[in-house]
Amino acid sequence: MFRLTIVYDNKASKDFTGSWGFAAFIETNFETLLFDTGWDGQLLLENMKKLNIDSSGIRRLIVSHQHWDHIGGLPEILQANPGIKVYVPASFSENLKKEIRKRATLIEIRESVEISPGIRSTGELGDKIKEQALVLNTGNGCYVLTGCAHPGLAAILDSASRYGEIKGLLGGLHDSEEFERLKEMDLIAAGHCTAHREKIKELFPEKFVEIEVGLCLDLE
Q1: What are phi and psi of 4, to 5 degrees?
Q2: DSSP strand pairing (2-8 vs 23-27)
Q3: What are the distances in angstroms from CA 59 to CA 7, 26, 38, 46, 120?
Q4: 3-class secondary structure, 145
Q5: Does residue 3 contact residue 27 with C-beta atoms inside 8 Å?
Q6: How many CA atoms lie within 13 A of 143 on its CB side?
Q7: Is the pLDDT of residue 188 over 90?
Q8: Where are the domains of the chain?
Q9: Which site from 51, 116, 117, 159 is most exposed, i.e. has the minimal number of CB atoms within 10 Å?
């Protein structure tokens, strides 16, 4: 089982603050991980503090792609976690990779690779905008976590499906209209940059979950 908590998103539930960007905190039986950092690092830390999440205990940071609204909180997370392992697409700016190496252990992602038990990167996908997503394998099926899904759902889900049946999709889905790919899923949690969330909600009302800061999901 994985517990996934949204710690940064455009929308926020009561007592939290929303802001453009995305970040998700992942708890496993082995360790805690962070996927993306939003753009405002102080706000990210404030939201995590309200959720009783110890930012200094995060062991791995996975960054989906190099857009400002996903990497803005990097300095605060790196400062809070000396020696943290940071996984970025290999196409990241050489200057940014150099700065990360000064403060953390940098792992460049090209191909699909296991990051933590049950958690795997799809590898670097896409043409114009390179991006990685995560595949969370519960043993009963897989959930896919995206930052913005710039490479398109087909590319992401085709890569992820090599590792098991896809039970759910979570994160930003950008302007994807590949609704057919969602039909067989048990969970569709859309947020951040999802342009067609109302359409997705209309098509799949029983499966749809609105992402907002404070949302916590147990994935089994």
Answers
A1: -115, 125
A2: antiparallel
A3: 16, 11, 18, 19, 15
A4: strand
A5: yes
A6: 21
A7: yes
A8: 2-219
A9: 117
| DSSP classification of residue 63 | -
Strand partners, 188: 169, 208
- Whether the Cβ atoms of residue 159 and residue 122 lie closer than 8 Å to each other: yes
pLDDT at 83: 86
Q: Look at the block and give the residue holding tokens 């590319």.
A: 155
Distances (CA, A) of 200 to 66, 102, 177: 26, 42, 9
Confidence tier at 56 by pLDDT (50, 70, 90): very high
Distance, CA of 160 to CA of 112 (rounded, Å): 9
168 phi and psi angles, rounded to 5 deg: -160, 160
Strands 187-191, 208-210: pairing is parallel
- Is 0.85 surpassed by the pTM of this model? yes
CB 35 within 8 A of CB 6: no
Q: Which fold has domain 2-219?
A: Metallo-beta-lactamase; Chain A (3.60.15)
User: What pLDDT, in 10s, does the model give residues 193-207?
Assistant: 999 999 999 999 999
Q: What is the DSSP letter of 163?
A: G
